[in-house]
Amino acid sequence: MCDLPKFDGSEGEYIAPSKEELRNFSELSSLLVDYVQIGNNRRGFIPVSESRMSAPIVLVIDECLDEPHLQHLQSSLHAFVDSLPPITRLGIIFYGRTVSVYDFSEESTASADVLPGDRSPSQESLKALIYGTGIYLSPIHASLPVSHAIFSSLRPFKLNLPEASRDRCLGTAVEVAMPIIQGPSAELSRGFVKRPGGNSRIILCAGGPSTYGPGSVPYSLSHPNYPHMEKMALKWMENLGREAHRCNTVVDILCAGTCPIRVSVLQPLAKASGGVFILHDDFGEAFGVNLQRASTRAAGSHGLLEIRCSDNIFVSQVVGPGEEARTGSQETFKNDEALAIQMLSVEETQSFAVSLETREDIKSDFVYFQFAIQYLNIYRADVSRVITDRLPTIDSVSTYLESVQDEVAAILIAKRTLLRAKDSNDALDMRKMLDERIKDIANKFGSQMIESKLFRFPKELSLLPELLFHLRRGPLLGSILGHEDERSVLRSLFLNASFDLSLRMVAPCCLMHREGGTFEELPAYDLAMQSDAAVVLDHGTDVFIWMGAELADQEGNSAAALAACRTLAEELIEMRFPAPRILAFKEGSSQARYFVSRLIPAHKDPAYEQEARFPQLRTLTTEQRTKLKSSFIHFDDPSFCEWMRSLKILPPEPSWEILKSSLFRCTQFLPFS
Fold first, then answer.
1. Residues 6+ apart with CB under 8 A from 544
2. How far is 74 from 51, CA to CA, in rounded Å?
3. What is the mean pLDDT of each run of 10 residues along the chain (673 residues)?
4. pTM of the predicted model, to two decimals?
5. CA separation (Å) from 51 to 55, 86, 563?
């Protein structure tokens, strides 16, 4: 029996006469059902092959770069166009003080139409481009030589000005790119309207802030009117992003270099359009990989998420890449109280975190949930995905706690927390809030020890405290990152990320190299820093390879271990977007601090606690353990056990087998020793 509203327009209740009859209704017998409309009776739909459904891409490129950054950018751009499918339509725009729109009609020659950057383009100038004789959007198979010529024509910035003081009309460049990627309002062919598959995509390659024209800010933060101008620029960029989204165009912003990019101004442009904002150290390998993955990731459009619950349950918060839909944008049902979310993009790399609350005590035996997602896929077919489930109600606290998945609970808590941590001061407050959350759980669901002020944490949630400890001291809430821009970008990525990526960004996965090229999975503790070993640490947006000093001195063995670690790292991030950077370094080097700061400092704990939480120590000889202990440098960061005791809570009993199974998804294709 089903008592939820359904897309088929029924009264909402159906009793099947038999199991065989029930199987004829997939929405009643399956947890997840997809409805796909591919008929040609819809206006604007033309069934065409996959090879013709490639969405156009326009590259908008900063031309105010110095020689070292420019060389890396050119290499990445040349590799990028070589990687594109032949049928991909590409446009190229450079911007500095002016906007240069490159014309592909000149074979093997870089030729551009130039527009002023100090103001928005006029309708007349845009019409002249779109309806003129130039070709500004061309398939790669017809324009590859001229694309290479255009990239090779880039020259280093000539004037002797600091990077932050160079005129960049970034906003105007994106304004010009949007009508270029749309083309004429409709291309008529044999009486049908042809539309590109999926979202069109503008990829902005920036090396500095927007400092000229619409959406710009002053060169210096000390400008007397900077706060007001920043606020105006932020609003302008957000409106531009909304207009791009309305035109089915995603704006991805890929930044690199050492110049402050003013993330707060540019981020609304990417967010409102459904795109991503990524920071890179330079325009090298990681930038080039992300450039390619940004262009090839499948993205649907016109997404709408509807959430329905039993009457006594309501949605209190949704975190993810969307915003509450306007009234009338969703299909309505009789007595329907669904929450509708307008999805800014529809991608497998993203997710929504939904928080629910009860209006009153639940007296029924079950509660029901239905999630309906409607969107256009890359082939412009209408897809309606319906997920329906029911959960039993219980009156046992222990049974309730056993049903909670530690990792899911940690990510839900993390997303709610990060939503409020907008700057470093907020992050400090949120760390304190996490401490209080742990204490509340222990007080309400744990038990106080006899003749002690310490509380026992509920054994059913034994993994949760350690996951939240990683969160409070890691890059999302801790002090690992050096600049507020980095934290802001990482926070935005995390709030929209899929569950698997979110889990890796909170709790790193630690793998130690063993003989024969195998890897052993270990807790992410600093006790893994053994001088004769190599360790891979996957922290979601960064992957680190740490080589012990003793191993590094063995030339043959160290080369083999490093090669195996690199192979593993590349396999771990093969399909991940954004592509993490891979950093390799030796024990004791300056870069090793990136690795050390992400591990739980357990070296100060008593030996019995170390062995209980890091069983691999039992395999070491007395000499090896002495050497390991002497290698650590004292600092004030508390270990996990010290932190728990500071909260008046006994650290939960370690359960590495449970933790290992939860982390297994990151290495399930690997042989374990």
1. 536, 537, 582, 583, 584, 585, 594, 595, 598
2. 28
3. 39 63 64 66 47 76 96 97 94 97 85 94 91 90 94 94 95 96 55 49 96 95 93 97 92 94 95 94 93 86 90 91 70 65 88 92 91 84 87 91 95 95 91 96 92 90 96 91 85 94 96 90 95 95 94 90 95 91 91 91 91 92 91 86 95 65 39 29
4. 0.86
5. 11, 9, 37
